[in-house]
Amino acid sequence: MRRVAIVGAGQSKYGEFPEKGIKELFFEAYKDMASSVDKNFDPKQIESAYVGNLGSGGFQLGNMSALVAEYVGLPYIHTVRVENACASGGYALVAAVMDVMSGAHKMVLAGGVEKMTDVSGMKQKYWLGVSGDTEYERLAGTTFAGLYALIAHRHMHEFGTKREHLSMVAVKNHKNGAQNPKAQFQREIQLEQAMKAPIVAYPLNLFDCCSTTDGASSLLVCDAEVAKQFTDTPIYITGFGTSSDYLAIHDRINTVTLEGTKRASQHAYKMAGLTAKDIQLAEVHDCFTIAELLAYEDLGFCEKGKAGQFIEEGHTKIDGDKPVNASGGLKSKGHPIGSTGTGQAYEMFNQLRGTVQKPIRQVKGIEKGLVHNVGGSGGTVSVSIMER
Ligand SMILES: CC(C)(COP(=O)(O)OP(=O)(O)OC[C@H]1O[C@@H](n2cnc3c(N)ncnc32)[C@H](O)[C@@H]1OP(=O)(O)O)[C@@H](O)C(=O)NCCC(=O)NCCS
């Protein structure tokens, strides 16, 4: 199988942009990606495109992958829209990697785009909720915040995880996001403020939740053999893994483990010949603060049940021994569903190349990173390992 590298990466600003549609957002990310390629970029060499997206389509905007490809000047290529709820972007990256690995195409675009802020709060909650179990959980009236609240409750009950531990995740990620010019919320928050925010679904409050966001991201994925034609510092995808799980929490082996994360990461580590210990930076799926704590455990960064202690001891701060979500994570950077997975890889590309704009957010001298993207409350998960 062919080796695979990323030679360019771009992201639009994340936030609320009433004046921009999915085409404009996707173009902004594509243009940013094109300008990041060090030399010899020729769009005519792009042979296929995988575009993560959840909300567009259906009766309104079918064929959206062809639509955004056409808009950036790429008609007549193989295009696929990838939809796996909030993990759509991560799966778009994996699809692009498999395309290049197979030898079918040498240069492939992986990206994602979502436009979330132009519908009402009620519609957003309905629309997001249908990525979970619609037969029992939905009928019981749960939202995603409600489902993660159940998981948080159980984690607190079984392991003594404290409310403070959840807020510590929010404080850390807002601190990092404050240094990210493309983040939706570029402001720090204090622990007391995070603890006292209005409740959304107990025990989760406003600062335990990601927001709703407009945004796009774009990666240029190619055969490693030709990568050096475009840059002296390609970033290699050395491992990946994906796994589905039961959609409904009550069907799972247990409620405090995302089995999809465990299985996807174990596959990715094996493929890359690494273990969790080797990972120097991770961008993980912190749609709710409890999700970041679960990720520490299920990715193998700490023992099951010890995530509270792990955040409290500062391991995952930017200057800790296992930094997590240097970008600000979904919590502060924002979560434009289809773009999130490739957006995480955009951050890792820059971190590994040492090209993060604000040096205070740059994790220095790292060579191995991991990106982790979760769909729904764990129904789909993708993990990719990126190395300099
Ligand atoms: C958290 C949530 C319920 C807040 O929605 P809301 O109450 O309608 O909030 P609004 O958008 O009206 O914003 C109210 C204020 O809070 C701020 N805000 C909104 N979400 C925020 C967040 N997640 N973190 C910090 N501040 C936030 C807004 O900027 C706004 O501030 P302002 O009054 O100073 O302008 C909503 O964003 C949500 O449902 N998030 C989860 C999305 C989700 O489930 N994604 C899928 C994950 S699997």
Oligomer: single chain
Ligand catalogue:
coenzyme A
Pattern of helices and strands: EHEHEHEHHHHEEEHEHEHHHHEE
Shape: globular
- Major sheet: order of its strands? 3-2-4-7-1-8-11-10-9
Distance between the termini: 20 Å
The CATH top-level class label: Alpha Beta
Number of helices: 13
Low-confidence stretches: none
> How many domain units?
1
Report the CATH topology name.
Peroxisomal Thiolase, Chain A, domain 1
Largest sheet: 9 strands, mixed
| Percentage of β-strand residues | 15-25%
- Spell out the CATH superfamily: Thiolase/Chalcone synthase
- Rg estimate, integer Å: 19 Å
Output the structural class.
Answer: alpha/beta
Question: What does this entry look like structurally?
Answer:
With 388 residues, the protein is of the alpha/beta class. It has a single domain, classed as Thiolase/Chalcone synthase (Peroxisomal Thiolase, Chain A, domain 1, 3-Layer(aba) Sandwich). It has helices at 22-36, 64-71, 88-101, 121-129, 144-159, 163-177, 191-195, 224-227, 259-272, 289-298, 307-312, 329-333, 340-353; strands at 4-11, 48-52, 78-82, 107-114, 199-201, 204-205, 215-223, 235-244, 281-283, 368-375, 380-387. It has a 9-stranded mixed beta sheet with strand order 3-2-4-7-1-8-11-10-9, with helices on both faces. A two-stranded antiparallel sheet has the order 5-6. α3 crosses α13 (340-353) and α6 packs across α10. The longest helix is centred in the middle third of the chain and has 16 residues, at 144-159. The mean pLDDT is 95. Bound molecules: coenzyme A. Coenzyme A (COA) binds next to α4 and α5.
